[in-house]
Amino acid sequence: MAGVVESRTRRVGRPPQDASQRLARAHHILDVAGDLVLRWGYDKTTVEDIARRAGVAKGTIYLHWKTREELFAALLRRERVEMITEVRRRIGEGPATLRELLRLLASGILGRPLIRASVLGDSEVLGRLTRQKRDRTAGAELGDFQGYFGTLLEHGALRGDLTPAEHVTTLVSVLYGFLSAPPMLPSGCRPADERLAELIADAGGRALEPGGPIPAADARAVARATLEYVDAALEAAQRKLRVSLGSEESTR
After folding, report:
1. d(CA 127, CA 236)
2. What number of H helices and E strands is found in the chain?
3. Which residue has the higher pLDDT, 155 or 2?
């Protein structure tokens, strides 16, 4: 009996020696943290709450993350990876266009409450964590659009009368504006999430595209650029998540 108690204590108090076990435990803790923050909000969710619900010691959580802020940063990074992974899967099925990218991105944000709260600065959900990250923008969910937009411009798939900065400003304004609007609207005017994603894609396309079809060769180049762009965004998001999970050293 003493051996069993000692074994259980060792499992709770120390990180698993096997890296896969350690990673699985980290994901379990993040699962619990995500459930609690959506139920109670970030400000009311403590490390003690997470540890109790996850069935681990409080000290075990600090073996993975030094602070509560780092834990929730890992949670948001994981959400971002999962969202972009789904965007990549669906856009790979075609068509790989700017409009479709906008639709899938909007749909991904709307379908993930934590990402939605992060993009919209929802202090009821993310509390002080949101106030500490006011520099975040909707466009940041898929990184820097300017290189991608340069390729679209080269192939005639983007308006040439706007500067690169104006392209990004227009994109973020459309995306953020549409995402922010529903709470301000009368209940009968609030579209369902999937319809809202379609409206974002249509408005973004109308605002950024030159209008009319482009040659087939250019359309294929745009599709390749779109897939490469999402692949790069996914790789960057995965790298940040690995750092948060302790499976890769930060280069910063």
Report:
1. 26
2. 12, 0
3. 155
The pLDDT, as a whole number, for residue 136 is 47
**CA–CA separation, 58 vs 60, rounded Å?**
5
Hunting for tokens 């002080």 — which residue is that?
A: 128
d(CA 176, CA 182): 11
180 pLDDT above the threshold of 50: yes
Contact yes or no for 119/176 (Cβ under 8 A): yes
The predicted-structure confidence for 131-177, as pLDDT tens digits, reads as follows: 555 444 444 555 668 889 999 999 999 999 999 889 999 999 999 99
Nearest 5°: the CA angle 172, 136, 206 is 5
CA distance 147 to 204: 18
Q: From the centroid of its chain, how far is CA 221?
A: 26
Gyration radius of the chain's alpha carbons: 21
The pLDDT of residue 133 is: 55
**pTM of the entire predicted model:** 0.85
Token pair of 6, please?
A: 């000692």
- Give the number of other Cβ atoms within 10 Å of residue 57's Cβ: 16
Residues 6+ apart with CB under 8 A from 36: 45, 49, 50, 53
Q: Which residue has the higher pLDDT, 38 or 2?
A: 38
Could you tell me the two tokens for 12? 């709770």
Do 7 and 52 meet the contact criterion of CB atoms below 8 Å apart? no
Which tokens is 181 given? 């609007």
Cα separation of 244 and 73, whole Å?
Answer: 8
The secondary element (H helix, E strand) that includes residue 145 is none
Residue with tokens 């894609």: 201
Q: Select the more confidently predicted residue: 126 or 160.
A: 160
